[in-house]
Model the fold of this input.
Amino acid sequence: MDLFNILEYKSWSDRRTLDAVAQLTQAEQKSALDFARQQLNHMVRVEELFQARLRGVEDPHDSTNTEHLPELAELDSRLTAANQWSLAYARSLTSSSWKESISFTFVDGKRGRLSREEALFHLINHGTYHRGAIGHALDLAGGHRPADTYNVFIHAAEPERRG
Done:
């Protein structure tokens, strides 16, 4: 298993979650929709922060969430773009650059250091955690919780594995 495949899985899982959240109604499922938007906003901001850190440029945000929540369409666009960027970035790395360390400052002022590979893995793992929270909110609101496990992804991508 390689990180490219896992980044594709993350993108697929995020898409399924975004599509499920889009089915929530403002009138009947407002609290679940607002919670999902808050979680997605946090996910997007963390993605954008780590993109900047991987690129060696200034952080675009001074926090990992905001008081005002962007609309779902904006969050969808930004998360989709972040996933596309991460996969393209991973493909651009040379075998030696995966292990290179990046040093940065978290928004809380604490210093951090990760390899490029670890930073990308953090984004994968971080998304999994927040998709789970969104899935729980979807369940409570009577929405559709998509199956977003790696098993579902790989068997959809490679149906011959079912044989």
